[in-house]
Design brief:
Distance between the termini: 59 Å
Structural class: alpha+beta
Radius of gyration: 19 Å
Number of helices: 7
Bound molecules: zinc ion
CATH superfamily: Class II aldolase/adducin N-terminal domain
CATH architecture: 3-Layer(aba) Sandwich
Strand order of the largest sheet: 4-3-2-1-5-8-7-6
Order of helices and strands: HHEEEEHEHEHEEHH
CATH topology: L-fuculose-1-phosphate Aldolase
Strand content: 5-15%
Largest sheet: 8 strands, mixed
Number of strands: 8
Number of domains: 1
Helix content: 25-40%
CATH class: Alpha Beta
Length: about 250
């Protein structure tokens, strides 16, 4: 009888080099490239959204603060599918006034929330807004995303739910901006979806990923019984452990 062998694991080829050297270098270069600063970082995040998230094609939006042009940010256009957004479609807005600085398309209808967050929280470098499935389910039943797993320790003690407001309004923008904090990096809007922030759009998407995954775990666990929630001390210890996690330990707050 012929011996059965497990297939050899696939080796990712040049991927480690790409991720560890080429990608960071390209990001730094593109971040400061005149007239495109931050736009490529935003497009990279957008491509990941289309890969991973169960969300309608044109729902949600993302933005990246420009470092090369003070007090401005790039934001995705209104009504254009994630997979169709290109560099020329991004719209640049003023952080102070919300006016369009450059771009030919209309900005996302949630531009007021993005502007409010950037103007209130100078440390925020990127924002993602999604109608991802499980975060939206919890928003519909008005339950915050709880720390049922240490995976979301980086985002905060929990992801609170702010009361429903019509999308695109100043009232919604104010609610979201005043709830976001350095230790509350995501918020659910009742009957709507999720806002997540970070140092960049890519970092904000990572926070959104962590929230969405935890929301799914919490939702599925709740179908069986009331899940145990981590204590503040347990979360604090998890944050300490994350500081030395992975190949590029970074500080988190
Ligand atoms: Zn929305």
């Amino acid at each position: 009888m012929a011996e059965r062998r497990l297939p050899k694991p696939k080796v990712a080829g040049s991927r480690p080099v790409f991720r560890s050297i080429l990608l960071p270098t390209a990001r730094i270069f593109l971040l400061y490239l005149p007239n495109t600063g931050g736009a490529f970082v935003l497009l990279t995040a957008i491509s990941r959204i289309t890969e991973h998230h169960k969300t309608f094609a044109t729902s949600g939006n993302a933005s990246e603060r420009r470092l090369d042009v003070p007090h401005t940010f790039w934001i995705t256009p209104s009504g254009v599918g994630w997979s169709d957004i290109g560099l020329a479609d991004l719209v640049m807005l003023s952080v102070q006034t919300g006016e369009v600085v450059s771009g030919t398309l209309r900005p996302s209808t949630e531009w007021r929330a993005h502007q409010a967050i950037y103007s209130t929280h100078p440390w925020v470098g990127g924002i993602v807004h999604l109608h991802s499935l499980y975060a939206t389910i919890l928003s519909v039943i008005g339950i915050p995303v709880l720390p049922v797993h240490y995976q979301m320790a980086r985002v905060g003690d929990q992801v609170p739910v702010v009361p429903y407001q019509t999308f695109g309004t100043t009232a919604l923008a104010r609610r979201v901006a005043e709830t976001i904090a350095s230790d509350t990096r995501a918020v659910l809007i009742e009957n709507h979806g999720l806002f997540a922030v970070g140092d960049s759009a890519d970092d904000a998407l990572r926070a959104a990923d962590e929230v969405e995954w935890t929301a799914e775990v919490q939702y599925r666990a709740m179908l069986v019984k009331s899940p145990r929630v981590l204590t503040r001390d347990e979360l604090s210890e998890a944050r300490d452990a994350f500081r030395t996690y992975g190949q590029n330990p970074t500080s988190i707050s």
